[in-house]
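ok so i was messing around last nite and threw this chain in just to see what happens. nothing serious, just curious
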Amino acid sequence: MAQSITHPAPNTSWPAFLRSAHRSSLALVCLAVWLHAADSLIIATMMPAILADLGGAHLVAWSFTLYLVASITSGAASALLTLRYGLRLPMSLAAALFSLGCLLSALAPSMPVMLLGRLLQGFGGGALVSFGFIAARQLFPAHFIPKAMASVSTAWGASAFIGPLLGGGFVEYATWRWGFVAFAAQALALSLWIALQKTDGTPTEHPAEAPIFPWQRLLLLSLSVLLVAASGLTSSPLTLTLCLLLGSLSFLMFLHRDANSTRSRMFPRQAFSLRTRNGAIMLLLLCFTMATVANEIYGALLMVKLHALSPLQAGYIIACGAIGWSLSAFATSNSPASRDGQMIALGFAMITVSILGFALAFPTGPVWLLTAIALLEGAGFGIAISFILRYATASAEPEEIPRITSGISTAQRIGYAFGGAYIGLIGNLLGFDTDMSLPEAASFSSLLFLSCLPLAAIGLIALHRTLRP
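result:
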């Protein structure tokens, strides 16, 4: 009678991971994520100096909006590019495009030229993040994926602290232009590094046999995000509502056309639908990202108003979310695959509690409680995101894996755009004003976070569908 052969369980400890042959791939993925994550924080710190040199204060919001639109569009297209050309060439070109955008911004003689640079940075940065998620799934064995995602979380969390310091350092001791040059150099080095890698990520579609690139769908997606983001830039209720309706309609049209495509699909089948597990996962991420934008947009203003904090103190309390994200990702990275569903449920439950906690604690404090809640919210994301990639791709068809991995990161960025518009609309309806009295500001803060609970409720429904056998 034949005896069954048992294989020893793989060593999933951090020392084993860091001593493995995957160290180079890990550094590559973390640098790709760092470039995108630190970008907006550095720009926010350098923007006063940029305006002093270039003018164009009325275009400030567009420097962020154009980056966001471009990053979502390129992120959505990254899965298709990987399927057709492998991972190395598209990722190397994305880093080169980011470098070119940074260099153009560094040399910009006026704000419109800088906006063009920001657009190129968005295309490159958004693609880099999606390619980073795809690389985390392709370049690491399944038992190391949580470790890779924990490292990515650390790179993202580090940007919350290092980004503003770098931006302030360039403004204080050199010039904001050198800040862009520094990032252009990092991106160029990453582009060359990727180009020299031996691992390519095998394409599953031959370029000669692939259909025409889906420009029309990309335009629809860009238009939807642009309209939704633009709704946050207007004070007219009619214009705001019209932008939201047209943006939502464009997004639904994009999803319909993408779902009816065959080999050129950018998202997994039935994306953002409760009918499939991966569709539910994307809806889950979209809703919870939207539900947690309020603290990033209004948190610092409300803490300064209600609790007499300095803007710097308030900013670092918000940044505690990134610390919680990194710490929880590291602390739970040894969890086995059999517990992925439980860890994902725990993470999103913590996020839901944090939203309710902000609604109750923001009006009266104390400040340490707000800090703890920010840590809890970040920790929830750190736990959930570390395992959702492995969980989503565990039983997926090979050709669907790039679409799922890039879709996860793209769904989050779409959530930031839609969430910013939603919370801006709520803020306007509640009559936000920096001159509000303390009782008015306290009431506003409570209602603002309570308005995020319906989004979390939809996310919990999607979570139930995600974890259902």
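not much to say yet. The chain has 17 helices and no strands.
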